[in-house]
Amino acid sequence: MGLDCRTDQHENLPVVAAADGYIAKVTIDATGFGRSIRINHPNGYTTLYAHLNEFNPSLEKYVTEQQYKQQTWKIELDIPADLFPVKKGDFIAYSGNTGGSQGPHTHWEIRETKTDKVLNPSLFAMSIPDNVPPQILRLCMYDRNLSVYEQTPHFYPVKKIGSGYTTVAGVIVANSNKISFAMSAIDRYTGSSNPNGIYQTVLYEDGIAQVGFQIDRITYEETRYVNAHIDYKMRTNGGSFVEHLSRLPGYPQGLYTDFAGDGVITLTDDNIHHIKVDVKDANGNTSILNFDVKRGTIHEEPIKTGKVLYPGFVNVFENSAISFYLPENDLYDSVHLIYNEIAPANKDAASSVFQINTGLIPSHAHFPVKIKSTAGEAFKDKIVMHRYWGAKNDYAKAVYENGWYKASFREFGYFQLIVDTTPPIITPVGFRSGMNCKGLARLAFIVKDNSKEINFRAELDGKWLRFTNDKNAAFIYKFDYHCPQGTHQLKIIATDCVGNSTEKVYTFTR
């Protein structure tokens, strides 16, 4: 979506405006961009700067005032154009590691202001030298008589020959009459080891362009389709990023252009067919992969039975215990439904455990799941639906509807209703009631709950007090003028998604 600019593993380096304009938006969140700034420019572009620490003093003061006015740390502010004009090179913030960042850096984007489409910054003739062509790492082939999620592709090592690439094995023999390919490739700037994404790829069969993709602009609403662009199953299992050189049936053209089809190659004869993959970066540096493929003995796969879920259609499943509804844009390829009912093992269970597909199959949209409860209506306001796969857990308050409990999710896996009557646990860090805090720079609290949805509120002497919560870790208040010298009462209230609440009151001196 942009460029991740390295800061040599340091935070608090100055971040400056890329061009004249005005600060139009500020967001603060525990995940995502963390602390970010958007600047609108008179040429119709917007630049975004993310994972920041403190903003410049005047902007920091304004944002803090708005947080206290709205009584929320997490905030999204649309700022009037006349409040914070900037010139190219003006200091706007310090770099950081906030939000969904895994190390100090600054994420930078260029957008169309009117459409909010993110533009490829490599197309803006920045003074970053680049004479390095993309590097092609691997090739794999799929039998497209099958779902891409119900097979393991065949991998073919590639080797560099002169200025191009070819397969090590020579002619690829396909034991199928319908195939498609995918590849791993990276791009780099001159003098940098950072691996970047590929700008453009076109697949040719016998000299005729079949399909290609070009990543020059995209909206955040479209980014979910990255799960159709890559082999999602392989990546989720811990494997490589492999990009499809075909458009999956549930993926609208988007980044892809269908020249002579969607990239699925039908082999109708036993001749050798020549495949060329043309890979370019935004500066025109090009790498070409050439190889040959021919049809071999067709392997008849055993016919799978059971319910099939299709892309482009509404898919519904229901029985006496569970039902779910997949909207028509939810699947990228057909899959056989995987469904199991498992007896509950946990004491808070309010239903069996139901498996709906696996976490290796992507879902594009949120889909509703309804489950019958075994707990009775006495607990209907305390029912949470738990979805999990591997180490990932999602929780949502389940809404009661005529004997069913409903919640929506965006991933498949295991689903279960649980009764949640346990309030959150509040634990102070290096702080206790009655303490003299003269030597402390901050107050910190860790809040634990059996779900992730926590509403945290702090009041100092009866007034709302701003605690940060970066990366959903500790809740932190850094002492400032909102806590003057003297004796104070601090009230901490933590509430989960079904209303279970814990309140702690502390006194301290500063």
Question: How does this structure look, described?
Answer:
- This protein has 3 helices and 44 strands.
- The protein is mainly β and 510 residues long.
- The chain folds into 4 domains: 3-119, Glucose Permease (Domain IIA), CATH 2.70.70.10; 135-295, Immunoglobulin-like; 308-419, Sandwich (Chondroitinase Ac, Chain A, domain 3); 425-509, Immunoglobulin-like (Sandwich).
- The strands form 8 sheets. Strands 12, 13, 14, 15, 16, 17, 18, 20, 21, 22, 23 and 24 form a 12-stranded mixed sheet that branches.
- The longest helix is centred in the N-terminal third of the chain and has 14 residues, at 57-70.
- The chain is flat.
- The model has no long low-confidence stretch (mean pLDDT 95).
What labels would you give this structure?
510 residues, mainly beta, Glucose Permease (Domain IIA), Immunoglobulin-like, Chondroitinase Ac, Chain A, domain 3, 4 domains, twelve-stranded mixed beta sheet, nine-stranded antiparallel beta sheet, 3 helices, flat
